[in-house]
Amino acid sequence: MEESPIDTPEEDNAAAEGASPEAAKAADAGGQPPQRCGLVAIVGRPNVGKSTLLNALVGQKVSITSAKAQTTRHRITGIRTVGSSQFVFVDTPGFQTRYAAAMNRTLNKTVHSVLADVDVVLFVVEAGRFGLDDAKVLSLMPAGEFAKPVFLIANKLDAVHRRADLVPWLKGMQDRHAFAEFVPLTAKKDADVQRLLAIVEPYLPKQPWFYEEDALTDRSDKFLASEIIREKLFRLMGDELPYTSTVVIDKFEEEGNLRRIAASIVVERDAHKGMVIGGGGERLKRIGSEARQELEKLMGATVFLELWVKVRSGWADDEEHLRSYGYE
Fold first, then answer.
1. 143: buried, middle or exposed (CB in 10 Å: 19+, 13-18, 0-12)?
2. What is the pTM (predicted TM-score) of this model?
């Protein structure tokens, strides 16, 4: 396993400049480096920072983040093109081991299908930690003839006070799996993100790009609207609201520089509906206001947003409801 330094260098380097050694060599020879393009899965237990890492790698928000576990429920694709290489990142739900509802079976199926399709896997853990839920995700890594290069991404490095403590932890991780690379980082630090891109690049297959150079995600504005609203819902509700709540876009209309969006927040009980609305409707207004402001920044347009709260008992354990709400 190749190791990336535990102390992240601060100086500018070729990765930060967007130039790989291969690209530099081709430039010196007066030629164009071959195009590279590959699928990179980001996997790990809930709440290890997968969505934060995806957004940082893409350079713009394409996946929602929250302190509440299980905020990522769909296969989110983010795209980053640097020089001659295009990285297609797939953010997955945190693999669920505690619940057996239909929604969790659907989420876990998504994780399995992603691992079968990609070229590289970024297995994200918290630096210095490895628990039972991490082990269950690691056990999913394809083996034998289906094996893929798996990187150990030790996230939240800034929370480790003594870097020397990572050495015995790393040895234990090496004994658990033959990781292709070890990359300690803090997803919120751009220098760390650029370093990770440079390490992943040689593992991408030499082939034409899948998307245009300026593409950031394969998801529609309608889908991103539902994700942003759901993020604000979970951020403002905290642990009050069960994670079996979702957002459905009922209307999405474009009129020049105006976006008219009507969305329903779907909960399982009447009591949850009252919690979301809040006294005098204040909490629902705040969810709508914060979502609208972020959507306007994301879309570069004026957004008119209507929010409703609906009760659908048992929706998270109903396969038909899941399909109608867009779960894969």
1. exposed
2. 0.66
